[in-house]
Amino acid sequence: MKNGTQRVPTTIEDYMKVLITGATGLLGRELFKEFSLDGRFDITGLGFSRAEPPIQKLDLLNASEVKEFVEKAQPDVIIHSAAERKPDISEKDPEATEALNVKATRTLLEAAQSVGAYIFYFSTDYVFDGTQPPYSIDAEPNPLNFYGKSKLEGEKVVLEDSQSIVLRVPVLYGPVETTDESPVSVIAENVKQRNSVKMDHWATRFPTFTPDVASVTRQLIIKRTEDPSLSGIFHWSGNEPMTKYDMAVAFAKHWDLPEDELIANSECPPGAPRPKNAQLDCSRLKDLGVGEQTDFSEVLKRLF
Ligand SMILES: NC(=O)c1ccc[n+]([C@@H]2O[C@H](COP(=O)([O-])OP(=O)(O)OC[C@H]3O[C@@H](n4cnc5c(N)ncnc54)[C@H](OP(=O)(O)O)[C@@H]3O)[C@@H](O)[C@H]2O)c1
Fold first, then answer.
1. Pairing with 241, which of 39, 101, 169, 184 sits 20 to 30 Å away (CA)?
2. What is the pLDDT of residues 155-214, one digit of tens each?
3. Whether residue 75 has its Cβ less than 6 Å from ligand 1
4. How far, in Å, is the centroid of ligand 1 from the Cα of 259?
5. Which fold has domain 16-173+210-239+279-293?
């Protein structure tokens, strides 16, 4: 039994009720899949414009509906993956970004607290300025763009509750519904179409496979049932440093296309400012024995 004032730890021997926001998105779809395959979880997936059964539609900007939904669902954990995650869009529309990334996060936290659930919040390496990698979980954030600032504000909201988990991840790639869902798919498409566009060779990224993040999330939630003190900030990331140009070269090799058609651009790219290298130190999760890192070349074989 749960109530609004007392947290009752759920053991994994009981099934756990998990609510996933953003379950129609790039990461959320993999989270929904990962948890659905584990019979110990009772999953509810939420989406918005793309919601179709089994995913339910709920506008996270509608606070009263969110609170009502959570009250009915009585989850043990709310995995909060929904966000505005495109830095250039965030820069152009800070109000809409703040509404989803910060205000809706507060609504969810309050709803979670009222039923004794905890929040598992996804954040980004863009909370760091990229000047002093690698970044430990307690390194001082200094976001360079509005997206990073809004995600950091969202972190602060959920961390008002000491039960919350924040998992920071860098650029994600995985199965997509449309090419523009991930910058990695955009690079793949450019290489495939042999568009000789300039590829960013300035920023070092650590492309991270969405099924790996979903697996790490499930592993961490299971660990948490064994040790309820596991909370606060965690980092997870792929382990291969790559610029967008490096990724393009990997795709060209994979498809046996000429690499000399690719143009490396070593200048800082235009648009919302981005960190040069915000490598995340993942040792807190590794020390717990939690992890999954699929090689970029392996993903190319599987997905492309
Ligand atoms: N993608 C990356 O490279 C990356 C990197 C670091 C961190 N992250 C973080 O990881 C998380 C997942 O990112 P993602 O790439 O999976 O995002 P995404 O593909 O853009 O998905 C965003 C999700 O948010 C939902 N959403 C948007 N507005 C909503 C609203 N008003 N009410 C309810 N749901 C709404 C969308 O639903 P509909 O599509 O159905 O409208 C969608 O499911 C985010 O927290 C992001 O900040 C992402």
1. 101
2. 999 999 999 999 999 999 999 999 999 999 999 999 999 887 789 999 999 999 999 999
3. no
4. 33
5. Rossmann fold (3.40.50)
60 lines ligand 1 (CB under 6 A): yes
Ligand 1 center–CA 75 separation, angstroms: 20
Tell me the whole-structure pTM to 2 decimals.
Answer: 0.96
Residue nearest to atom 46 of ligand 1 (CA): 85
Encode pLDDT of 247-276 as tens digits: 999 999 999 999 988 999 999 988 889 999
Q: State if residue 85 touches ligand 1 by the CB under 6 angstroms criterion.
A: yes
What's the one-letter identity of residue 187?
Answer: I
Phi–psi pair at 225, nearest 5 degrees: -70, -30
CA atoms within 13 A on the CB side of 261: 15
- Mention every residue, 6+ apart, whose C-beta is less than 8 A from residue 63: 107
Amino acid identity, position 76: D
Q: Domain coordinates of the chain in residue numbers?
A: 16-173+210-239+279-293
Can you read off the two tokens belonging to residue 121? 């919040």
